[in-house]
């Protein structure tokens, strides 16, 4: 039972004790149930009046009378109030025998006054028929609190007999104030299906949804689901009433677990209700799930909502604190709800998607394993790639390590099938060197159509700075294949490659890639390097020579058109003498000194 | 402690749970009144029940009770 409902039930008990209208004490609902229970005990104590011991002795003396005679004296002289006060002094078997001679009205009055702790033995000794008669009379008087006190003391036969004596609405009212809520499931199991349907109808017609939700909250998950399904079969008007009651009474923490246990059909009907789609209702649902950790109940509902409602849920989710979002993620892991979670993430605004992605990245390896296993098993890689892309680079490096090789292969297949390279290439750049190397070595990556897709995506989306670091990790045959594809790229695209290498200081990688190209394309790229702005060209030469790439620099400069050599020569003069000396030696070795004209002179100047 | 909380304490004969301090004056006063009414009603029922029993019990038993109550 939720605190809200428990406080409300306590308020009904206190109201009965004080003989006050329950509505008058509505202010008590704001207090926690434990405080109200303590207060009720204090009031009970305060209202008890000491009884003269002589009265008890008189009652005890009735043990020697025939039951019929004792019953007559009790009826005429004691009345229900005094009888209740002295009953503990009477032998239980005598009390039970006497009760058979008392009319239901008297017994009902007695039950109202009885303290269950003192009269347990007597109650237990009553036969089912007598109990049933008392129950009918108590229900007629609407003494639900009194009934709730005693149900826990009855055996199964007496309960079954009593169930037939009270109507469906009374059942809900009694269950709500039952002292022994742990027996609700057992008692509900005794009800035939038509009674269960009747209970649902009564909840709607007599505005007893809070009582019904409380009852559902005390059932085993399976029985809760069964009753939830019966509710789900009701007309839309009834279901709307249920939703409105949950909203008005702040009872989503009671209704969500019911919806979570419903079958798909009933849940879909609930999710389709207009009353659920109202922004304030969706907000209350999400906040209740957050407060009471009901994500396993809420997540299965989300795919059934219309898109606008899903986005509303995602928007509310985006306002939740980071710690709550972490609970959502862990709950998805614990209950194997990754599919549902990644769908919700997809509906979230950009900023919060990154927040969730970083939360996923922070998960321990065991949880990450389950995440990637779900991505493979359930075909979630397209969504997962989107999430990976949002991860901070530092986290991504670690996450990449956690993806098993089979997962990486599935990732590549998904990227290829769903055209996800645009998202995946930047993510690959931020993976750890180990993960990147494993990815590059996968046979799936080496397939010609995959490599072609990767290179074309890099060309179309300007992702050269993401692709270039991958190239040295590829097997040689694949690198040649990349070069062959690169050779078919238009000059403008190659210019972008060169610009990206300059911008991201990836000259060594570009140089390596250039030398893989067939001679025509290599010359094209070399000439593009020669056309670079002076400062970029200087950067190329400085970076490459610092890295000791003298043979490669000479090879590329040798491919440049003669018209560019003057500009190259001007920049070479700024290189340190040791680098120039190395370049001279390399040019001699390649027999290129004569062909390099002004560059040769610049190299040798001052040496 | 507010006056109304004092009054509730007096009517209850014990300190109410701390959380009752969250209730406003109006609610506390109402609770005091409800409790006072209940106590008065209870005392009346008790008195009437004893009186009724005294009158209806066989005379010998009734006299013993009367003697006992008179002490």
What does this molecule look like?
- The complex is a heterodimer of chains A (607) and B (71).
- Chain A starts with a helix and ends with a helix.
- Chain A is 74% helix and 0% strand.
- In chain A, helix 15 (221-232) packs across helix 18 and helix 25 crosses helix 27.
- Chain A has 43 helices and no strands.
- Chain A is mostly helical and 607 residues long.
- The mean pLDDT of chain A is 86.
- Among the domains of chain A are: 3-47, no CATH class; 182-317.
- With 71 residues, chain B is mainly alpha-helical.
- Chain B has one domain.
- Chain B is built from three helices and no strands.
- Chain B has helices spanning 3-12, 25-56, 59-70.
- In chain B, helix 1 runs parallel beside helix 2.
- The longest helix of chain B is centred in the middle third of the chain and has 32 residues, at 25-56.
- Chain B is rod-shaped, with a radius of gyration of 19 Å.
- The interface between A and B is medium-sized, with 33 and 37 residues.
Q: Termini separation of chain A (Å)?
A: 91 Å
Separate helix tally of chain B: 3
* Rg measurement of chain B, Å: 19 Å
| Overall tally of structural domains of chain B | 1
Q: By helix and strand content of chain A, what is the structural category?
A: mainly alpha
Residue stretches of chain B low in confidence (pLDDT < 50, at least 5 long) are none
Largest interface: A-B, 33 and 37 residues
Write down the Rg of chain A: 40 Å
- Mean of all residue-level pLDDT scores of chain A: 86
Could you tell me the number of beta strands of chain A?
0
Distance between the termini of chain B: 41 Å
Give the integer mean of the pLDDT values of chain B: 84
SSE-based structural type of chain B: mainly alpha
